[in-house]
What does this fold into?
Amino acid sequence: MRHLADIPRWCDDVTDSTSPTRFARRSLLKAAVLGWRDESDFSPIAMGNGDAGAAERSLIYTVTGRILDVSPQILILHTERGEQRFPLAASAQAWRGGPVSPAALRQGDHAIVRRRHGGGPVLDRIWAEIGRVTGTIIERDGPTSLLVDEGPAKGRRIVLIGPEAAGRIQVRFPRLEPGYLIDVIGHKHDGYLQALVPATSQPPYRAGHPPAAPMVSGHVPDPVSGTAVWHEPGEEPESLLGLAYPALDPETSCEHATSVAPLRPGDLHAVEGYAVDPHATGSGCVRLPYLSVGSLIRLRNDCAEQTRIVPVTSCGATARLFCDRCVTCGTSRRGRIADLTMAAFVELGGALEVGCFNATMMIGG
Amino acid sequence: MLTAIREVQIPLLAAVLLGAFVAKAWRALRPQAGAARSDPAGLFPAHLRRPIAILVLSAELGLGLGLIGTAVPFGHPWPTLPATVARTGTALFFLVAVGVLNEMRQRRPHSGCGCFGELSGTPIGLRTIARPGLLCASAVATLGLPPLRMPSSPTEAELWLAVLAFELALIAFLSPELGEIMVRLGYSEPCELRRMPVGRTMSALHASSQWRRYAGQVSAGGPSDVWREGCWRFVVYPGYARGRPVDIVFAVYLQSRRPAVRAAILDADTDEVLGPTGTRQSAVI
It folds into this structure.
């Protein structure tokens, strides 16, 4: 049991193996003490925490696993349920460093796939070895190699930009210099990401200086609109349906976490000057109510018109640094409101290689 | 009357210039100061923006101090050249400002002038452009004015104060920043965005009637879970009720004075609700 004296040191994370059920029970306890504001809302009490509730929070469209075999008609994946065979739709599209035919995927590739119909066997989208790096450039080694700080919780990643992608990326990220933000999608390799496409346009300000959000009078508007993006699983389970929320309660959540990946020896003392703690840069350009891990959010993909209830599973403070818009379908409001797990992003109808969708969220499920 | 009008211009112009300097410097020094802000430097290429911003700041500080420093007699005979330079410079500064603001209004109709830092976020309108025009005329009116002196009679002092009040009212009318200042003075962060230490929540809980009602059933010295959603912070204590282990959940509204506190008891094993639950209306976070 955790005691009050421990609270400032807590770092909520639903993947915390010691007490994942603690976070899962929070919505139930909240409903017990406050009730629910609308009968049509998802209520754990009404659901009795039973099958319907579990189905609501499990993946319907999305499967993750490692490719065991692939042919033009069949994909065999090793998933957490064991070996699974999926027929491919005739129109199935695959991505492996770019659009490829499904037959071009390789054995051993890590893949995330989307079913054509919820719960059905047929696949229509496959992404293999896709990765993303989002954060602050803290070191540049020549024109093609960057060291990127993804925030206190995620550590640092190496990004390589090949000549075939350099022009495409530099159009959207003209300042590939320490102190500026980067957000790129590419082919994931051991120890680095081969950047292939820009996930957004580079904000014009330095990473530690996002513009302040306008003041809010009365209550924070609900629902809130903005941009939803995705992140790599890291230490989370790959099939986790959840999101990293940019405004976790600083008193009881990850604000105090300082687990930074170890530096490479020797040359990085100067690099520290460029690393940005997103908790110290203000609320970002969108005002979001403070929540905690385990809070439920009803999130809508405005482009695909799909809605799911997604639990907050981790800290997404780095999203506060990006005061950008998504233009997947029209122009979204400025600011990132949710940083989804890959599985949740695909489940909501997002295309990973695009990087974002216009989203609307309602707090409290 | 005309002399009175001329005499109040110098302290007024100096106050405006130094106020603008302080507001801009405050914005520049703040950690959240971003490049997304709007000011006249934004009209220039990126590599010139910083030097232009520094030039504007230096001009405001230099002219403000110059107007004050040359307004009082400090030599015999009183040298007129420094005073003329400061006052002419001030007139030119505001004349240039009229042109720049007009240009900004045409090229960036949705951006503020940045004249008083973060306070000047309102899109530039005719009033915003008229203000430096008025100040330019004020500076021109001071040319040739002898050193400032104290009013020679109560009547003259009253006249000066009346002129000063009228001109301040005129500048306030031409200043969209005044509305922003009033908003900020009266602004209170919504409870969803307000940081609230856990210790204050616990103090409020332990002082509540709900706590007194259920404290006897609590079986641990500290909570087993504490979290927040919007305006509510939830505190869970393990306990015993009706002979079985329970979770006692308290919800504390995050406000400073007399916060609402609600409570519920759930069976720790089955999650069955044993105690009072909240109402639907209370769930607004």
Observations:
- The radius of gyration of chain A is 20 Å.
- Residues 163-172 of chain A form the longest helix (10 residues).
